Amino acid sequence: MTSTTRKKRNKMKVWAVAVWLVIWQLVSMWIGQEILLVSPAAVFRRLLELIPTGEFWSSVLFSVVRITGGFLLAAVAGVTAAGLAVKFRRVEEFLHPFVLTVKAIPVASFVILVLIWVPSRNLSVVISFLMVFPILYTNVLDGEKQMDQKLLEMARVFELSRPVRLRYLYLPQILPYFRTGCSVALGLCWKAGVAAEVIGIPDNSIGEQLYNAKVYLNTPDLFAWTVVIVALSSVFERLFLYFIDCTVKRLERMK
């Protein structure tokens, strides 16, 4: 099965979304208590009320900048660290305990610990970074370890320059591993980042809006902001993966 066929099969179908919305509406009507389960119609109305407000866009901008910033920092650090780990075995040995520890510790524990050292406004940056770094580091490291040693030896024999090696040897091999890591890390990044904001409660953040909705039992707001989080995460993931796919296709055409 080709990658194009897999993408088509994995694409979300409108009819499936519509069926789930109908099920949600029916269950909400059956319960009859919006404080327990609000209807999709009520959530849509609340979204229409929130979107035109300055507070809505202020909260969205605050969280987007910090969570995506944490992801991008982790991407740069993960790729760099993987490159150093392949070249210097001591670097890989040094980072191994750190990566295993970060993978094992629950997000809530990290949030509380980091909150002692970092202001709540920057908490989501650090948490997003910590959640993404191990994934991208290990994926890129695996990609570099799978490099064809004969091709690398040929590059050394013919004394190919570093840009040429990067363009024709490393990027085609590593980008698929990097893309796979990103597809996993992007969703986790948003989940962890918003969870950090809910605990740290920085002003004018999506996490603060979720916390207030919980405190005041405002279920329409809770669901509306959850829909916003899902939409932002999905849009950012699609844009970033689209950029990587375009880069891969450009490299293939240049061969």
Automatic annotation (TrEMBL):
<keyword id="KW-0472">Membrane</keyword>
<dbReference type="InterPro" id="IPR035906">
    <property type="entry name" value="MetI-like_sf"/>
</dbReference>
<keyword id="KW-1133">Transmembrane helix</keyword>
<keyword id="KW-0813">Transport</keyword>
<dbReference type="GO" id="GO:0055085">
    <property type="term" value="P:transmembrane transport"/>
</dbReference>
<dbReference type="GO" id="GO:0005886">
    <property type="term" value="C:plasma membrane"/>
</dbReference>
<dbReference type="InterPro" id="IPR000515">
    <property type="entry name" value="MetI-like"/>
</dbReference>
<feature type="transmembrane region" description="Helical">
    <location>
        <begin position="177"/>
        <end position="202"/>
    </location>
</feature>
<feature type="transmembrane region" description="Helical">
    <location>
        <begin position="56"/>
        <end position="86"/>
    </location>
</feature>
<dbReference type="Pfam" id="PF00528">
    <property type="entry name" value="BPD_transp_1"/>
</dbReference>
<keyword id="KW-0812">Transmembrane</keyword>
<protein>
    <submittedName>
        <fullName>ABC transporter permease subunit</fullName>
    </submittedName>
</protein>
<feature type="transmembrane region" description="Helical">
    <location>
        <begin position="98"/>
        <end position="117"/>
    </location>
</feature>
<keyword id="KW-1003">Cell membrane</keyword>
<feature type="transmembrane region" description="Helical">
    <location>
        <begin position="12"/>
        <end position="31"/>
    </location>
</feature>
<feature type="transmembrane region" description="Helical">
    <location>
        <begin position="222"/>
        <end position="244"/>
    </location>
</feature>
<feature type="transmembrane region" description="Helical">
    <location>
        <begin position="123"/>
        <end position="141"/>
    </location>
</feature>
<comment type="similarity">
    <text>Belongs to the binding-protein-dependent transport system permease family.</text>
</comment>
<feature type="domain" description="ABC transmembrane type-1">
    <location>
        <begin position="56"/>
        <end position="240"/>
    </location>
</feature>
